[in-house]
Specification:
Strand content: 5-15%
CATH architecture: 3-Layer(aba) Sandwich
Oligomer: single chain
Largest sheet: 5 strands, parallel
Shape: globular
Distance between the termini: 40 Å
Number of helices: 7
Number of domains: 1
CATH topology: Rossmann fold
CATH class: Alpha Beta
Radius of gyration: 16 Å
CATH superfamily: HUPs
Structural class: alpha/beta
Helix content: 25-40%
């Protein structure tokens, strides 16, 4: 059985539409936009008849940057950086996934995520080995890691009306319009529609 980390952002929504896994995992780990992410992910999971599992573990005291509503650490590669976030999310999701028989966890990382060490192919290869060697033998894959967001969206065939449900803001449940997530959302939408940004 296949599962996906479905954050409710453009990349994970497009990947879910393309790959149609049986289970979608959405994690509230204390991020500022948790409510909107859960709602967006839930709409897509319902449309695609994918079982949605919501995992809530408050790690807000461990976060930093825009997603945690604090200043970024000095070593942060980008203002939204949350230390070891993908490792945390995969661990939390893996704990539930192994209990319900999921054998593959897909992550919606794309080429531009390489600004973060945990958004690179080398990270996903390493955590795949780590999780696969443990009980349950879960595999971790990032099917769109070599694609741009626009390319992923085109390959997925997701309609604009469904993609419009995506929540990309790092700062809150309403789009701020200025964070890197919002800017990426506007730029990708502009590229896909041909409108000037």
């Amino acid at each position: 059985m296949k599962g996906i980390l479905l954050s409710g952002g453009m990349d994970s929504i497009a990947l879910a539409y393309w790959k149609r896994p049986e289970v979608a995992f959405t994690v509230n780990y204390g991020q500022a936009a948790a409510e909107a992410e859960i709602a967006a992910a839930g709409q897509v999971a319902s449309l695609l008849s994918i079982r949605q599992e919501i995992i809530s573990v408050d790690c807000s005291s461990l976060g930093s940057g825009h997603m945690a509503g604090t200043d970024a650490l000095d070593l942060a590669p980008a203002p939204e950086w949350w230390p070891f976030r993908n490792q945390l999310l995969l661990t939390l999701v893996g704990m539930r996934a192994v209990a319900i028989g999921v054998t593959e966890l897909m992550v919606g990382s794309v080429a531009s995520d390489e600004v973060h060490a945990d958004g690179r192919l080398s990270f996903f290869n390493s955590i795949d080995c780590l999780m696969h060697m443990q009980e349950g033998g879960i595999r971790v894959t990032a099917p769109a890691i070599g694609l741009t967001t626009s390319a992923l969206i085109k390959i997925s065939g997701i309609p604009q009306s469904v993609l419009a449900w995506a929540h990309s803001c790092h700062i809150g449940n309403l789009a701020c319009g200025v964070c890197r997530g919002c800017v990426k959302h506007y730029e990708v939408t502009s590229e896909l529609t041909g409108d000037a940004y």
